[in-house]
Structure of Glycosyltransferase:
Amino acid sequence: MAAPHGTLLIDARSAGARLPRELALVASLAVDQSFELVIVDDTQDPRVTGIARRHGARHLRLPGAPLGQRLATAIPKTSGPVLVFPVLGSLSSTRSLLQLAQRVSVGEVDAVILPGSTPGLFARLLGRRKPTSIAGICLTRHWYERLGGCDPDLDQEALTDLVARLRLCGAHLELAAPHQRGS
């Protein structure tokens, strides 16, 4: 079996009830072996094993820990040269995921930030801008290892911290536009 083009890590705790929908969206990537799908799970929910199996994902059980620690523990147990995590509804098509991963893989950009929810209509009308939340990131394993991985002490701030360290190292970052996230 050939090595996957990338590894897609989905955090079961962060995905919550959206886990089956997230996996249904990306399951075809595991079937054609483009991506290794890994469910990072510290929830101790016995249903996650069946959900992972149905969608061709590997289920990696971990003890309860912050997001940074969960990712830092899981990533060395994967093999893809491009890493995408934790997704959390930030993609709406496999085609867009493959395009982003390809751009990172060939060095067009060092990492692509997958933005979280956008401000609501009312906030936009009032001109209120808040910093873009980070729902996920796509980067090469090389950059991840060069930075020393995720800070194991950080939970929700783990991805923001990783992006800040990428910027400090001079990585070429890009924010995925809504049309890049899916169609």
In short: The chain has a mean pLDDT of 82. The chain has one domain: 6-175. The radius of gyration is 16 Å.
